[in-house]
Each structure stands twice: as structure tokens, then as C-alpha cells.
Design brief:
Radius of gyration: 17 Å
Helix content: 10-25%
Shape: globular
């Protein structure tokens, strides 16, 4: 199973439907990285559930190739999340608060293969874990604001570098809204690893604090699916 299906190399979380201009007052203020990170943390601390459609772009540096996919995701505190990839990909990634299950269909509609692991071992990075009610950016990362115009974004681009070295990724970029009505909302997450690969998630049609129901986060692989190790 591809490592890109993991929540971190997927895993997280978020959208670039339309570039939202920052307010004139915001542009004139000196906003530092810690302030922006605090806005993100505060907004999602108050968010119980989160749903969106996502567009994922994975850049493979070795082959200089882009792989694109899309689908739907949902987060529900504490500890539950689900990614449903649209066909022909068709993968499903589900965490019920205890276990994380990743399934991908086989060729021509076959039962495919799946892997399971305990949530504690999944090690969702701080950039995503606060969406499921765990982790704090202040504790997990050092912050820096990048030049948002260089990334074609009119809000803030917040660079997160892990306080403790992580072999799986080098940094995370959060594309954060600066509009007064949407301060702290993250629209895009980009994960850069140590080999120069980039995994970007853009979310659209974001919906907050709606009832989801526990059944959404229950998933049983089809009969005959082959279990893989993680």
C-alpha cells in the first residue's frame, strides 16, 4: 500500500476554492507567525466536526511526476476521520478513534487489500491531529511566515517545522485565511518530505459542526480483501 495513503502523507487537512483577499487592515498590521498559529489553533479548538471535498496533488521528485486525486473527507472529535477517494482510485481511510484502517480496491472491482494499525501508532502529525482533537501546534512545531505572494496566496503561508526531527516529513505549509470573518481557517496543507516530494491537499465546500454520526467512521473491508502489514 502506498505511503501516500497515510493520513500524514495523505492524512490532516485543507482548501483553495478561491483565493480570498486579505483585508486592508490585516495587510497593514504586523502579524507574526505565532499569532497566525494561535488563530489556527483557536479556530479548530472550537470546531467539533469538519467536512470538505479535497483535491490532492502529489509531486514525485525522482520521476518529476504529478499524481492527482480527489474525494471527500470528514473529521469528528475525538480521534475520528475518514477519507473517501473518488474512482478510479477508490481508496478509503478510516479512523474510529481506536484503529486506523486503509483499504484500496483491487483491479476490476476485486476485494483489494487493506492495513490496520492502532491510532497511537499512526502518529498523525500535529498539523492534522488538532482536527481530531489531539495535538497543539505550539507544542509540535516551530513557526515561520513565508512570502504568501510567492505561493499565489492572499492570506498567510505558515511554515511548520517539527520540534523533534521526523523521518517522514521535513515541513508542513498551512495556507491560512486572513479575512476578518474567517481568521484561522486553513485552506491548503502541503507536506514536504526529506526527498523533495510534495503532498498538497486543497479543500473545498468546507462545512463545520454538523452532526455526522458514528456509522460514518465504521468500515469493514470487503470479504476476501488481503491484509497487509504497516
Amino acid at each position: 500500500m502506498s505511503s501516500r495513503t497515510l493520513p500524514l502523507a495523505i492524512v490532516a487537512l485543507l482548501l483553495a476554492a478561491a483565493l480570498v483577499p486579505s483585508s486592508p487592515g490585516e495587510a497593514q498590521q504586523r502579524v507574526d507567525a505565532r499569532t497566525v498559529a494561535g488563530r489556527v489553533q483557536s479556530f479548530y479548538d472550537q470546531t467539533r466536526t469538519f467536512q470538505a471535498s479535497f483535491h490532492q496533488t502529489y509531486y514525485n521528485r525522482l520521476y518529476d511526476r504529478y499524481d492527482r486525486s480527489h474525494g471527500q473527507l470528514a473529521f469528528d472529535k475525538p480521534g475520528r476521520m475518514r477519507f473517501d477517494y473518488a474512482r478510479p482510485n477508490g481508496k478509503v481511510i478510516v479512523a474510529d478513534g481506536r484503529e486506523l484502517t486503509m483499504w484500496e480496491p483491487g483491479d476490476e472491482g476485486g476485494p483489494g487489500q487493506y492495513a490496520k494499525t492502532e491510532m497511537a501508532r499512526a502518529a498523525i502529525p500535529g498539523a492534522f491531529s488538532f482536527l481530531v482533537g489531539d495535538g497543539r501546534l505550539e507544542d509540535d512545531y516551530r513557526f515561520r511566515l513565508l512570502n504568501a505572494r510567492g505561493y499565489g496566496w492572499n492570506g498567510h503561508v505558515l511554515e511548520l517545522r517539527p520540534r523533534r526531527p521526523d523521518p517522514r516529513y521535513r515541513r508542513v505549509l498551512l495556507f491560512v485565511d486572513a479575512h476578518p470573518d474567517r481568521l484561522g481557517v486553513v485552506h491548503t496543507i502541503r507536506i514536504d518530505d526529506h526527498e523533495g516530494n510534495r503532498n498538497k491537499f486543497q479543500l473545498r465546500q468546507m462545512r463545520f459542526n454538523r452532526e455526522l454520526g458514528g456509522r460514518m467512521f465504521a468500515f469493514t473491508p470487503p470479504a476476501g480483501a488481503r491484509r497487509m502489514s504497516m
